[in-house]
Each structure stands twice: as C-alpha cells, then as structure tokens.
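Weekly structure sync, notes
Attendees: PL, DS, HV (note-taker this week)

Item 1: Transposase IS204/IS1001/IS1096/IS1165 DDE domain-containing protein
DS walked through the input record. Source organism listed as hydrothermal vent metagenome. Sequence as pasted into the shared doc:
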Amino acid sequence: KSGIKEIISAANTIERNLSGIENYFINRDSNAAIEGFHAKLKLFRQRVRGVKDKDFFFFRIFQYYA
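Item 1 (cont.): predicted structure, written out as tokens:
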C-alpha cells in the first residue's frame, strides 16, 4: 500500500463500486436516466414549494412526467 490517503480513498471507492463499473463496460448500462429524473424532480419540487395539498402535488407530478 502506498500510505497516501488520497490513493487509498480512491482505491476504496473503486472497490466499493466495482460491480457497477464492470457493468458499465460490459453492458454499457448506467444510472444516468434515473439521475436525470431525480434532477427534474428536485427542480419540480422547488417550483411548487409551499403546496400543502399532497394530492395536488402528485397530480402535478403525474402531469409533468406522463
């Protein structure tokens, strides 16, 4: 081991995510679509901040993403 904390941290990150990394290179699968959805949902939540009616909130989500 190198003893350099940044390299150790990078190696640990790679080990922790190795199956996802391999999956990307084998199948070209990634989680980009779900990350994009989460970003859109976060923006939507900012726009409707203060809405107290849950039913209306979910109605707007279904309209926006349908």
